[in-house]
């Protein structure tokens, strides 16, 4: 048992912390159940797994709602520490959610999403949007009902944004994209015209051996300083990070067997998420504070490591020996050529294949569609056509099939509306980190010399260590003196790609 | 979600079944948490894992105790089905345990066991019993307290036996061993004198490649009919079986790199446990009935497959092609020689290395010691000396060190007093199965022809399918018309080794 757990001098907060322990334990179990589902669970075992998750969700719900009275009382207290306020904020949000959204609706959403997920897989395989359409309609209907139950100011989509990114509104996101999109278009046009970054590269069709790539990954993880005793790497269809505890964080990757920069990106991206979880102050363990404040902040870490560090000239040079040692076909390429391969710029139809510049176009498209779906301004049946037109508007190309269009992502089938924007927030915040961290260190020099520990330290001190004490906007204000400022990302991209 | 879950026409029982679902879900989580702990969990993550398990145990406890009223009411009902009675019996036992044993004692036992476990590992490594002694004293004291809380008729050890094997008493176990021990000694003396079964064999020092042994295991699992979609094999320090659900059952094994019969035994033994779990009637899923009635019955399955099937002439012949295909060094040996290697008979100091004949001597020794420890007739400090004398009495040899004496097993350090006897019950019941199944089929012929499915079917029909509907004694009475009869095991061993 842990000798030290965060304490509060406020007796009500202390009671909340105590009563939160079984909720933490349920979250620990959820994390393991979810990780196992994607990694080792036998394929025929999804039914009991779903049953267990639903039952445990009800247990959690009950425990959260039971904190309602304590929360209301504690909210009257005036002399609260920062940590106390964090506890109140986080648990208050959970109580609020479970109190406002009836368990019948939660269950209906879960059940519909489970069915929709199966149908979506089939629809995507056959590239037939019409198969998925009724499920999308139903899910949108249920999500709209959820927004009504949750309540909102302004746009109903705000209620969904807030679930993943506390306090985020369509006004925030509109402001970000209205600044970001035209500038990204300018950058793209220029990069494409100047041809300094390739649209194609011979290495993207180069096949690799899984065993060799595993060795590359192991070396990368060592370079990134991932602790063997608190961390593991496994394989799953879609790479993800799962944290069971501050000292039990796991990532997954996949091996496509070709185009090795993707494999490298997966591992660096997920390690970015993992480093966040591993560096949360361990005294916050077992409390409501032992989480990142939002998905946007979490994604800023994976993006910062994957793109700002991982696709830099210095990093590609740093890992060149690792590549050469394990991947014989790399030997014919100079550092600069590897750098160019890592930074191919090419408008594409598929989000997960998009480069640093065009990635955000894929997000604004989904954001605009979700907003309209939830507002009722567009119906599910219109999605393929609207998608197609928007793709042309943002990326300049149209999908030939639904599979490479509106059926490409899992999110809608899981009922995760409001999630996509956090990917762009991740890019935006990573840009703010890039801007800010370089005031404290010579970032390029540290990367070049493999002193990644300096970057980890900085991130722990400024971001990770705080866990969920501050809301995403508060935390940004404290670190950067500004919130979701897209200009930092723009400046970085312009400097990287245009100078 | 499952469309069909066992229902009862009795509304109180139906309510119990409904309210048991979150308990089932917690058990599902416990199974996964435990499996992960032994297989994939990062080494530095045991503290949060222990914390989560303790918290979830408290949740379970609370849920179980909440069923107390419904149980008392339902017990008054007279028109109960067999399934209803099973539900009442099983949940009644759980309520009884958590009601009688205060949660403070459960927690103290868990905490002490966690500490004792660490100390035991160190003590065993250094072979110093004195290091472990104070923890053994403390654990015995707590277990005696537990017997007082639980209450018992006759010997206090009965309270502990009953936890693992419902209704088992020292009178039962004394009756078994007083019949078994002298006969086993006779068999051993004769086998040793006749030298028909070797005490040593060149294959026991033959090294093997892990990769080759994995292929053998895969072929064995196919032969045993283990379903890929509901089953997996992983690696852990000590082989075990874990069931998350009827269609999610997992076993583990280990690769010592030498003496391949051990590796084969592990996989067949654990598969025997797994087949039990996989063949419980799936309509019992999510109810209190979806478990074997006792450890003795569970062990009867692993022992039956490992020894009665796995060490038979027919089976060694059946798997000879698998061995030859994957283990080149086997090619020089005839079927009969492989059979002799699989059936080496040699009194040894280590329980887990013991053969079919001497194994039970190791159990009676532990049983006698536990009984005396719990009765206060022997103190922890006397254990090494008493152990040594008893080993000489039963097995004819004395341990040279504590590591190969009283420190060899993990059970005491985990507080599992009353567990050991179920190993011998497993052998005894396996003997009864061997006797009974041969009235319904030509067992040898089925093994010879690889028709193991016939054995699986018989076991499902007579044992597995019933789940926990009947108590261990009731179930035996129904199948065999007799209970824990050691004569069947004796007859089998005499026939195998003396004729």
Query: For this structure, what is the CATH class of the largest domain in chain A?
Result: Mainly Alpha
Indicate the percent of residues in helices of chain A: 55-70%
Low-confidence stretches of chain A: none
The oligomerization state is homodimer
Domain module tally of chain A = 2
Structure, described:
Two copies of one chain form a homodimer. By secondary structure, the first copy, chain A, is mainly alpha-helical. Chain A folds into two domains: 144 residues, Up-down Bundle (Methane Monooxygenase Hydroxylase, Chain G, domain 1), CATH 1.20.58; 329 residues, Neurolysin, domain 3 (Orthogonal Bundle). Chain A is built from 20 helices and three strands. In chain A, strands 1-3-2 form a three-stranded mixed sheet, sandwiched between helices. In chain A, β2 and β3 form a beta hairpin. In chain A, α12 crosses α13 and α14 packs across α16. Chain A is globular and about 65 Å long. Chain A starts with 10 loop residues before the first helix and ends with a helix. The mean pLDDT of chain A is 96. At the A-B interface, α1, α2 and β1 of A face α1, α2 and β1 of B.
List the topology elements.
The structure is a homodimer of 499-residue chains.
Chain A: H1 11-39, H2 46-65, H3 68-76, H4 82-100, H5 103-126, H6 129-150, H7 157-164, H8 170-194, H9 210-224, E1 231-235, E2 241-245, E3 248-253, H10 260-278, H11 295-309, H12 313-326, H13 335-342, H14 359-375, H15 383-394, H16 421-440, H17 443-448, H18 452-462, H19 472-480, H20 487-498
Parallel strand pairs in A: 1-3
Antiparallel strand pairs in A: 2-3
